Amino acid sequence: MTNNKKKYLNAMGIEIWQSKEQPITEPTSEITLNSIPKPNSNTAPPTQSWEELEQCVNNCQLCALHKTRTHAVFGVGNKHAKLMLVGEAPGANEDLQGEPFVGRAGMLLNSMLKAINLDRNDVYIANILKCRPPNNRDPSQEEVRLCTNYLLQQIDLIKPKLIVAVGRIAAHFLLNTDESMAKLRGQKYIYGQHNTPLLITYHPAYLLRSPREKSKSYQDLLFIQRNLL
Q: What gap in Å lies between CA 148 and CA 126, rounded to an integer?
């Protein structure tokens, strides 16, 4: 293992693995594209330009969340990215800065990406909801319904090679399921009108609360890396 890889694993808080003799392996439970669950039936509306879409998000008043937001959180990163990360909704730091995945969770996400030789600028990062739910509560079904078109248009503009649902709520929305993360991880799904492969991993905020799950997260990262080749 290279020194850079050790550094990034240490940043993720998983340096203890290096003392184990048994190598880390990738997930082996992969569902073939012909046997995946039926994807969410949503289809993207007519797609606007990036500038038009971002202006719509910034001016959006479709639900009550616009009354309590500091900033709408549109998305950030490479608009020609092969990899698109989709989270659930902005938190307090994201609401203040207008950018997804910042603060401690964002720092951990950056380290996770570096562990598979990716930089934050190499990928595109967005959330299902563009405004923060008060007190970081889970998004309501109505809020998700009203915000869906924005995310679908972002996916249609980018046409990524791979989508990764980051966290339980994003996974449930994108796959239209309520299965547990344990059952969803380590498998390949298909999403949307472009038949984009979709994988699942834990949210960095969850990993900060449950550091023992970081080993599973690293397995997910290896799975992501393999599917980007």
A: 12
Residue-wise pLDDT for 49-96, tens only, equals: 999 999 999 999 999 999 999 999 999 999 999 999 999 999 999 999
In order of 125, 157, 158, 204, 214, the CA distances from 80 in angstroms are 12, 8, 6, 24, 29
Looking at the chain, list the stretches that DSSP marks H as alpha helix, in order from N- to C-terminal side. Answer: 3-11, 50-58, 92-97, 103-115, 141-158, 168-175, 181-184, 204-209, 214-228
Which own/partner contact pairs does 91-94 have at CB distance under 8 Å and 24+ positions apart?
91/132, 91/136, 91/205, 92/132, 92/136, 94/127, 94/132
For the chain, domain boundaries: 48-228
Per-residue HEC secondary structure of 15-26 comes to HHHHHCCCCCCC
- What count of residues does the chain have? 229
- Phi and psi at 38, nearest 5°, equal -65, 130
Residue 106 backbone phi and psi in degrees, to 5 = -65, -40
Write down the architecture of domain 48-228 according to CATH: 3-Layer(aba) Sandwich (3.40)
Tell me the pTM.
Answer: 0.84
The answer to whether 144 and 65 are in contact (CB under 8 A) is: no
Pairing verdict, β 124-127 and 76-77: antiparallel
C-alpha distances out from residue 126 to 3, 130, 133, 140, Å: 31, 8, 15, 18
| Residue 138 amino acid letter | D
